[in-house]
Amino acid sequence: MTYGSLTGPLAGILAGRYTFRLVTLIGAVAQGLAFVIAAFGTDPYFVSFTIGIINGFAVGFLQTSSIGAVSQYFAKRSSLAMGMAAAGGSVGQLVVPQILRFLLDYYGYFGCMLVYGALTWNSLAASALFRPLSFYADRRISRVSLHADGLWKDIDSERISECDDCTKITPDNQSSGAVDGLKGKETSEISELTDKEGDPDKISNNGIMNGELISLDVNFGSTTMLGLRRDGVPKVDDTADNLRHIKALLDPEFTRNPRFWLYAMAILLANPTVHNMVMFLPPYANEIRLSKTQASLLLSVGGFSDLVGKLSGGILNNLQLIRTRNLLGIVLSTLCIISMACISFPCYGSLMLMSVMLGTLGGIYTGINPICLMEITGTNKFPMAYTLAVAIHAISSLGTPMLAGVISDATGSYKMAYWMCISMMAGGAVLFEMEPLMTRIMTNRRKEQNNFSNNKIDNSLSEIEMKDSVCVR
């Protein structure tokens, strides 16, 4: 899990240089190979290398590219889309163990690994559906024909009417017009397209869609839109420098943003605790002398609740009743209170309540967490920002379980490990609630800088006027 998170930045760089589809395909192939190769392993270290490192590498590619791609496809219902994408992992946690148990019983270890490796290759078909945004743009605008003496547009109105997000595109005297097909009301006009060199294939324009088509499609590859050919196919330039995708990880637009680092500190504290507190339930249940059946049931209930939480979190956030960052803070605060009560009075009923709430509220937290990051960085910067967030999560996930294990061994109980996790979760909740304060501080600072700049300009103008008046005299 940690190794997969550490490969997130590499996946983000490759997705920026090439496409999300290619990165997802690489992850799908690598995951299947990991289990097929593991089938021939007889040494524990060999199996750990294949399933742990190679499969972790594949999971990192699949997770990062999948979330990044989903963030680009949806604008109106992005919270629900993110929740459904995250819920896929919860479904896998419920279904895959049963499949593996069945395969082990009937085919043994060798056959189980081979069959499961083949099953994972089915994700290749899903990866192939990560089409670039220009593919859907071509379906909305069926035909755009350019002539040397002007621009005329022949719009297939039936295709436009099929899209929920589209508004009608109306030509304007066959020379210019408002194109709202891709971005709706937010899209500005194409005011002028001229043929500077006399070649209809070499069109100079003032920014198609006000740059919106360019900024969206660049996340699916390194190409840059140059214009439209006669047949309406976008022309691209793929000669961009490869290093710019690595430099994008240090893009000052979000790495110099205090709100991003406040978010990073919050997930550094909260993310590993939400996941580890569920995993600590079975050993803690054994510690208070519950049966093994009861201990395993706690984990199963938590997995099902996690699925419900991720789906309901997307729906809840999509209603926009409360800001995402405030919702995250409320979820973590509620988890802290419930966990403290359950740990203070340990029994089967309290642990079952804790499992349900950790699964449900933890699922809500996991499902809408990327939405909070998207609100901070914007859609275009989200893929690279998400890769950094995944790397930060990996660092925390590596250290938190080890620290919890040391505390449990030193005290002889998992109770102190739970109190450590609750304290970290409370810190994350406070940081999420501090984000509006940080936004207000940044806004006031910008106003002060603007006022200072305006005053400086006014003083300079006053000095110039005084010098001019002296010269006139």
Automatic annotation (TrEMBL):
The keyword Transmembrane helix applies. Gene3D superfamilies: MFS general substrate transporter like domains. It comes from the Eukaryota. It is found in: Membrane. The lineage of its organism: Eukaryota, Metazoa, Spiralia, Lophotrochozoa, Annelida. GO terms for cellular component: membrane. The chain crosses the membrane at residues 20-40, 46-68, 80-100, 106-130, 260-285, 297-315, 327-346, 352-373, 385-404, 416-437. This is Major facilitator superfamily (MFS) profile domain-containing protein. The keyword Ligase does not apply. Residues 1-135 form the Major facilitator superfamily (MFS) profile domain. Residues 182-202 have a biased composition (Basic and acidic residues). Pfam families: MFS_1. SUPFAM superfamilies: MFS general substrate transporter (SSF103473). Keywords: Membrane, Transmembrane, Transmembrane helix. It comes from Paralvinella palmiformis.
